[in-house]
From TrEMBL, chain A:
Domain of life: Bacteria
This protein's name: Xanthine dehydrogenase YagS FAD-binding subunit
Gene3D superfamilies: 3.30.465.10, CO dehydrogenase flavoprotein, C-terminal domain (3.30.390.50), Uridine Diphospho-n-acetylenolpyruvylglucosamine Reductase, domain 2 (3.30.43.10)
Top class in the EC scheme: oxidoreductase
Organism: Nonomuraea dietziae
Keywords: Oxidoreductase
Enzyme Commission number(s): 1.17.1.4
Alphabetized InterPro entries for the sequence: CO_DH_flav_C (IPR005107), CO_DH_flav_C_dom_sf (IPR036683), Diverse_Substr_Oxidored (IPR051312), FAD-bd_PCMH (IPR016166), FAD-bd_PCMH-like_sf (IPR036318), FAD-bd_PCMH_sub1 (IPR016167), FAD-bd_PCMH_sub2 (IPR016169), Mopterin_DH_FAD-bd (IPR002346)
UniProtKB/TrEMBL annotation, chain B:
Protein name: Xanthine dehydrogenase YagR molybdenum-binding subunit
Documented EC number(s): 1.17.1.4
Classification via Pfam families: Ald_Xan_dh_C, MoCoBD_1, MoCoBD_2
Gene source species: Nonomuraea dietziae
Residue ranges the record marks as coiled coil: none
Alphabetical list of PANTHER family matching this protein: ALDEHYDE OXIDASE 1-RELATED, XANTHINE DEHYDROGENASE
UniProt keywords, alphabetically: Molybdenum, Oxidoreductase
Amino acid sequence: MKPFDYQRAADTRSAVAALSRQPEAMYLGGGTNLVDLMRLGVATPAVLVDVTRATSEAIEESSGGGLLIGAAARNSDLAAHPVVRHRYPMLAQAVLAGASGQIRNMATVGGNLLQRTRCSYFQDIAKPCNKHRPGSGCPAREGDHRNLAIIGHSSSCVATHPSDMAVALAALGASVHVEGVEGTRTVPMPGLHRLPGDEPERDTVLEPGDLITAVELPALPYASRSRYRKVRDRASFAFAVVSVAVALDEADGVVRDCRIALGGVAHVPWRATLAESALRGAPATAEEFTRAADLELAGARPLPDNAFKVPLVRNVLVRVLSELAS
Amino acid sequence: MTTTARPYVGTALDRVEGMEKVTGRARYAYEHSPDELAYAVPVQASIARGEVRAIDVQAALTIPGVIAIIWHRNAPRLAPADNAELSVLQSARVAYRGQYIAVAVAETLQAAGEAARSLSVDYAGEPHDTELRADHPGLYRPEKVNAGYPTDSEHGDPDAAMEAAPIRVDATYSTPAEHNNPMEPHATVARWDADGLTLYDSTQGASAVRATLAALFTMPPANVRVIASHVGGGFGSKGQPLAPVVLAALAAKHVTRPVKLAVPRQQMFAVTGYRTPTIQRVRLGADVDGRLTAIVHEAIEQCSTIREFAEQTTTPTRIMYAAPNRRTTHRVVKLDVPTPSWMRAPGEAPGMFALESAMDELAIACGIDPVELRVRNEPDADPESGEPFSSRNLVACLREGARRFGWADRDPTPGARLVGRTLIGTGVAASTYPAYRSPSQASARLEPDGRYTVRIAATDIGTGARTVLTQIAADALRTSPDRVTVEIGDSALPPATLAGGSMGTASWGTAVVRACEALREQVSRSGDLPSAGLEAAADTKEEIGAQERFSRHAFGAQFAEVGVDVDTGEARVLRLLGVFAAGRIVNPKTARSQFIGGMTMGLSTALFEESLMDREFGDYLNRDLAQYHVAACADVRDIEAVWIEEDDPHLNPMGTKGIGEIGIVGTAAAIANAVHHATGIRIRDLPIRLDKLLR
């Protein structure tokens, strides 16, 4: 591992200042992904600025009826929070579907959003990867891509975003509070993450020095009827092959509103806006659910070894919508 | 000498080193830290075939704390070895991606790691071929296969019998490359001094490491001492010395300081062996009532270009079922891949997946219950050698398993049990593993204080070997286990065979019993105990060489219930039952761990384990426990292992058969058969991933 300095930021302002002062510095949250990447030589920060004390761990109801989650809140605490469990069950389910108890105890909400893809090529610096060495190429397209993207990918990158939590946040339309050199702003989910295009090394729209300070959930009363379903190769401690996060507002057999996001399919937690608009006002039937899923998946461009994800997403989405409707 | 003893063999004695382990006092190889210690981090080739032309070490040597970069130009010379894997840093050739080409040695692990990463290697790369295919022109017939078995066998006229059979199954099965992932990585602390070489090593056999390292460094074995007090799993990957232990010794010699080397998890996927992928064609011919007339089992596998390792994939087929016409073969191709080696039940595990899946297909083709089909084809004697079985209780295992599992009510119709959105099915398969025994030596000593010390260079790789040897010694000495100290895990002790081939207890136990018997005889002759105590020794070479001709095997039956989600294809094992007949069980507690551990690994084989070869780069891609899936706790829901009483007088003084490996044999077939019963989909290529079941 490359030697590095460790600094602990006392507040967000000094954290941002520390990063803008030191271009090779990175923020450290729970370290459950970053430290692995440092051991692998994929991440080589000269300085780690620990922000677990600079940002809040608190999870509090916000004035608008939503929930404000400090960036340093641990994943375990988020999943166990009574408001999350009752008003946003898919978020609690998503967090609990990820990693292991030990990792969730360490992992922070801010860090979870910024974890990197688990594409094998990205994690091996002896191989080309446009994400870890821009311009070096993407071997996944011809090589192993079973777990990689089917939608929104580019010729330079077919990676997926690995977070479960982010899929639920994208469905909920959370706002990410960011403090940067220029001051504070909010970035709406799913707009935090970006498609790879020809700059796959950039996972998010954040600028150098930007620090996630909190995540705010909107008041979305019907999200109490929501579900996260993760399809995975083994029953625990596995990244999603695909996942769906769905909140459904249905009455008298008609969909009034819904929120749908997909995981394991793209470089971003994929908000299924086409399916959502197709369902608004539609009968809550398996036929309509299938039609909406197909509409969303019409844009899929799977690779040979992950084409199965298209029918898989359709099946799971229809299943979860049907379960929520009944 | 006390005479109040009862038999301790058969009782659930707690692990004798349990307290040491749970309190952290038990020291594993990596936890030894001699003075002046340096750390070594190996460097792997990043081409799959070619030569290392040069390594630029300048940048690495400027890193603070770096002591040396060793590669083939400056490495100490080793004596030639039969196993070219051991000739570490002796030439410029690269035979596979991930092979060791250098090692960085530094004052700290971090500095060594950074130095290893900063090397600039100039390669002359060559095109590589890493793909196993059934029509590979390089396939050849090895002279023999692992464990010394004949490569092929043939009886009667299997082709004509197949032709004539009214019921036929002809199917090709494949199993992927799989990697051992013991919790404790391969690790060595190597120290040279005036007396020679001392190694604290994570190994399954200290005596073998001593012999191999002594030969490589051209020393008498007495000048090498290998200590392996506690080992955190091996499954075969630590069964023989490989590149890492040699590299540690070589690095320590070069820097003239003790060196500590642990193989990082990612490197284990290239340098510590793996289970070869296989492509197996099985043909079964039967008459209409399911009696086999022909069995043909042909296996194709791979090895590296530098060491032939031909796994005995089809050998269990030689003993499983009666049939007058039969053939088994093995063909191997040398590819630019890492060298395969032992992984729990090498041969039996993948071979029985194919055979026992084919038997299920035959049961369906004949319309006969799969338990009944197996019973119907039970042989009277070893079907190929003609030797009598020392004991064979497959039928009893099948019957007992069927009873416990509730098999009698089973509707054989596939795809007919939908509960919610889950299809449920059940499956059965047979298990088997040979009952081997190898020569070993042991000593037994009556101490002046009246306690006993038994010494043997056995290894406890987490199985409970130290505990069961204590029980065996206590019975042989007619005393209680708390008066016996068993010393193992050190090559300075009487030499013994490795913890492998499920033969540890049988081999070491025989030597321990004979040494204890000799000691009792001495004690009865000597009258008063001399102040120095009394000691006796035994060597079982002659006894084992002279043993009667029998076909010695353990058998078992595994029953699985699976649920397959119809929307996602996710298969989960709801219930797993194993019933085994493996001679006398020395310790029910540690035995159960072995059985359910093997079955869990079999479940893992069925559903998850698969090392993915990257054709472009020529290495196994999924090199960590996040990407290489082994079963997690949540995957193992309801698992039960039981055994039936088996009294076999033709084995060894304890009447034991090995139990370390049989648990993994047949599990994958039982699960695949259950998946077929659940869904109607026959999966012939492992693992049973959800995309293969998605419809």
